[in-house]
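Agenda item 2: magnesium ion complex prediction
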Amino acid sequence: MNKHYDNKLRLLIVDDEEGFRRTIAKRLAKRGLKPVQASGGEECLGILKQNPMDVVVLDVKMPGISGIDTLRLIKQEFEKIQVILLTGNVAVSDGIEGIKSGAFDYLTKPVEIDHLVNKIKQAFEMTRLEEEKQKEFEYRAKLEKKMIDTERLASIGTMSTGIAHEINNPLAIINESAGFMKQVVSSPEMSMFSQKDALLMGIEKIEKSIKRARKITHQLLGHVKKPESKFSEVNLKALLYETFGLLKREIKNKQININWEIDKKKNIVWSDPYQIQQVLMNLLSNAVHALSENGSITLSTREIYEDIILEIKDTGIGIPKENLGKIFDPFFTTKSFDEGTGLGLFVVHKIISNLNGKIDVSSTVGECTCFQLSLPKYTNQTDNDTPR
Amino acid sequence: MIKIPARVLIVDDEKDFVEMFSLRLEGQGEKVFIAYSGKDALKILENVAIDVVILDIRMPGMDGIDTLRQIKILHPIVEVILLTGHGSTETAVEGMKLGAFDYLMKPADFKDIKVKMENARKRKDEQEERIRQAEVRFLLRRSGDV
Ligand SMILES: Nc1ncnc2c1ncn2[C@@H]1O[C@H](COP(=O)(O)OP(=O)(O)O)[C@@H](O)[C@H]1O
Ligand SMILES: [Mg+2]
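Presented output:
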């Protein structure tokens, strides 16, 4: 039993009376506990800053920072440490005060050594229990957050597509009205009108703004699916090539290196090629945007059970931790309005969920960002049917 | 070259939209007819030889998809372009399967609409031409029989 504590229990004993402290320390050592020693509150706090401890045995009556104040400071800074107070036998009120301030317990001097050892062990058990509780709590919180996120995204999605629909109709009226006015102002009869150019400029600004608003509503509705699009075997490598073709100019301008680590056999999924291309387009253009000159994008695939995992990794600016939970939200963007709408990843998430896939992201700021797509793999029926 | 105006029917319950859109098309020299519901649209189609219908999918009462179905039954040669702000993907695809010529989401670029309209009209003209020729062949063969 003692062996077990030997290795793990980190103990600090704080008392200004050197003789008393040493004796106690020696006796504790005999019982398998090797305490570190401090002669006052200040030294105690200094030691704690350098060396993590589980339990502190603390004398209440000390010159300098009093025991109770030391206790409060310990609890403030090192929440998890359990403190056992040692009080003079007449000063029971100190002990009660101490417990109010978060001490594990108090013992009156003179102390019975076995009693102290027991208390220390109890206090240590408490630290471990608290730690487990904390871990469990964190795990739960994470799980709940994840669940809420998907639900939240779905409901935000429903709402924002609803709004997009409603806005399209008035936007179309503005569009036709502005277009008609432009047509009239541009007609030959209006050539004598001195304010004609100013008027046309105004109309063009309206049209430009309509286009800007339209970009948002149309993106939210996730462009219209092509009628001929349906599930088929999709070669990811070929589709990636095609998509890079659309980004050729940016890639050349920034001199981006593309590393292909795609397994020839393990890159065929069963999905809707049109929608997958939309996903790739959004992910790749984000990667290109995040890169500075001479950066690189690495593409790799692997097979896990019934799925193909596609990894798109860029050596760009990265995503700060606090943003990782938000990037799939509609309208979350760190770009200016003409560079991004914050809808790309939202649409990606929507499409991938509908296609029974999964998407994950990991990133280190200033180093890299990696998006992982998981999609159902294509299985050739005849291959499976023919025994080999 | 003198342009022969297309006879266009706009069907949409959004009156403000129909008003402005038709003014614009008329300004471009087209002959425009308007209907604010699917029922009215079918009435007009009975009386006028329309080339192209521009049809909103979401309307109260008889909706665009039903209207499209009826048009394709009663006037199969008339081309229909779906134009809507409520374009859910599924209905767009359904519309195309039912024989719509094309699909556009509001607000649409006027240029896009014009191009699609012209193509739709061309297809209708070609279709009519084919029918005419078939009729001619039929008549010739009959006279040959005699
Ligand atoms: N590869 C990436 N590297 C760094 N940041 C990224 C990357 N992909 C996405 N992001 C971050 O996520 C945000 C949301 O992306 P997205 O939904 O595509 O919208 P947008 O690109 O229009 O901003 C971006 O503004 C950016 O901050
Ligand atoms: Mg983007």
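Discussion summary: Chain A touches chain B at residues 165-169, 171-177, 179-180, 183-184, 210, 214, 218, 221-222, 224-225, 227 (CB under 8 Å).
Owner for follow-up: CH.
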